[in-house]
Amino acid sequence: MKAKILTLDAAEAGEIDLNDEIFGLEPRADLIHRVVVWQLAKRRAGTHKTKTRGEVNRTTKKVYRQKGTGSARHGARSAPLYVGGGKAMAPVVRSHEFDLPKKVRTAALRHALSAKAKDSKLVVLDSAAVDQVKTKALARRLGKLGDGHILVVDGAFDEKFALSARNLPKVSLLLVDGLNVYDVLRRDTLVVTKSGIKAIEERLA
What we know:
Elements (H helix, E strand, L loop, with lengths): L1 E5 L5 E6 L2 H4 L5 H15 L58 H17 L3 E4 L9 H9 L6 E5 L4 H7 L5 E5 L5 H6 L2 E5 H11 L1
Parallel strand pairs: 1-3, 3-6, 4-5, 4-6
Antiparallel strand pairs: 1-2
Helix pairs in contact: 2-3, 4-5
């Protein structure tokens, strides 16, 4: 499939052939969903912890004798039934990470890129470079390329461009090596440079 190449000022600068196996697929929501869940599970700290009845600092002496009181049978004050007792089936420190085949992860990234292309939210940029560090000027120029939060992807960023963009709350920069499904989907517009397109095709071909 063909796509227009734009400059930072949204002027046309030719056309580029995009690989149909990466940018021209019919997006599969099931694949994308599996990888997003996998990514978010890996990010979870898993540091939640509550004390069980064996860990609370309470006496383990039996409250009162088993029979003859007319009341229900009770053991130690550390039981979950009592105020200050331990928690039944308490959460413990653990990892939420699980395995996902590399082929599935790669396929989902292809489908995520295809979804952006299908929704006309993929912009191919001639080059991500500026002459001087000017945040306001770059914000105005990037605003012409797309609405909402913009994700700019390149093989290696120009230093002046990176410095100009770092204080823009709705602009994120990402190297091709770190490109992933979650970051692609959570941004409104995906802007990829020509060199970035080449690197993506080399990585996913």
